[in-house]
Amino acid sequence: MSSPCDGVVCNDDERGAISLVVAFGLGLIGLLALGIADLTLLADARSGAQTAADAAALAALQQMVVPVAGAPAPSEEAASYATRNGSDLVSCVCTEGAIESVVEVRRAVPALWLLPDVSWVSADARAIAEPPTSAPFPSGLSP
């Protein structure tokens, strides 16, 4: 019976060393995949929170600048829009008659693998109503 080291210098102490390198490499790849998954979930939650904040700020501003009789207060309108977009309204600086609204919302983050303590992301938005300019209408159009 011949040995696998016939004709070649072979050290039996190094047999199986590649399996340790492969195992370590696979572990690193798995850790990297979990990190990428966590970052993707965080980015998605942050994007959703920003969308909710933008919608809430615009809804509050619309109610502040052009109030509708019987409609909810601007802060209630902002909370409604934040909720419809999957977030919670944290604060709303929206006084009736003002021309600026500032809101902050927070959104729950799904369970993360590497960052288990992160459960919320927040976003804020500001909307400003500018008075109309006195620019003339383009030719052929009337107000």
Explain this structure.
The chain has 143 residues and is of the alpha+beta class. It has one domain (18-128). It has two helices and three strands; from the N terminus they run ααβββ. It has helices at 17-65, 74-84, and strands at 88-93, 100-108, 120-128. It has a three-stranded antiparallel sheet with strand order 1-2-3. A hairpin with a 6-residue loop joins β1 (88-93) and β2 (100-108). α1 (17-65) packs antiparallel against α2 (74-84). The longest helix has 49 residues, at 17-65. The radius of gyration is 29 Å and the shape is elongated. The model has no long low-confidence stretch (mean pLDDT 86).
Which key phrases capture this entry?
single chain; 143 residues; three-stranded antiparallel sheet; 2 helices; 3 strands; 42% helix; 17% strand
Helices and strands, with pairings:
Elements: H1 17-65, H2 74-84, E1 88-93, E2 100-108, E3 120-128
Antiparallel strand pairs: 1-2, 2-3
What is shown here, in short?
This protein is an alpha+beta fold.
Number of helices: 2
Tell me the helix content: 40-55%
**Percentage beta strand:** 15-25%
Low-confidence stretches: none
- SSE ordering: HHEEE
How many beta-strand runs?
A: 3
Summed up, the domain count is 1
- Order of strands in the sheet with most strands: 1-2-3
Structural class: alpha+beta
Distance from first to last alpha carbon: 101 Å
Cα-atom radius of gyration = 29 Å
